[in-house]
Each structure stands twice: as structure tokens, then as C-alpha cells.
Q: What sequence folds into this?
């Protein structure tokens, strides 16, 4: 099996992965992750709330923000 070690590791640590679900639902939105990909999506969501729309004439600035 190609992914045997990854599946085995996931099965061993599954209880740790879902540990946040033991908290009350209203508290879960305040629990953060150290996952860099997830963190970047949350940061982009937070920043786009501050900047509701991007100026059309500043596409280079938008590309800097996204890229």
C-alpha cells in the first residue's frame, strides 16, 4: 500500500484531530489552528472584511495581496 504509513498515523492520532469538537459549539470559532494553509485562508477572509472591494485600477496591488 502506497499510503499505509499516512493512514496508520492518521488512525493513531484521530482522537487528537477531533479533540476540538469536545468544546461547546459557541467556543469553537475562537479555537485557532497552527496549520499554515488554514491560517492563510482565515487571514485573507479577515483582511477582505476590512477591504470590502478591491480597486480596479490597482490590479498590481491585488496581485501582491493574493500572490
A:
Amino acid at each position: 500500500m502506497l499510503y499505509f504509513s499516512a493512514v496508520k498515523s492518521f488512525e493513531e492520532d484521530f482522537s487528537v484531530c477531533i479533540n476540538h469538537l469536545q468544546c461547546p459549539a459557541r467556543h469553537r470559532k475562537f479555537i485557532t489552528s497552527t496549520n499554515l494553509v488554514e491560517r492563510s485562508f482565515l487571514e485573507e477572509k479577515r483582511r477582505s472584511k476590512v477591504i470590502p472591494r478591491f480597486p480596479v485600477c490597482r490590479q498590481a496591488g491585488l496581485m501582491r495581496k493574493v500572490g
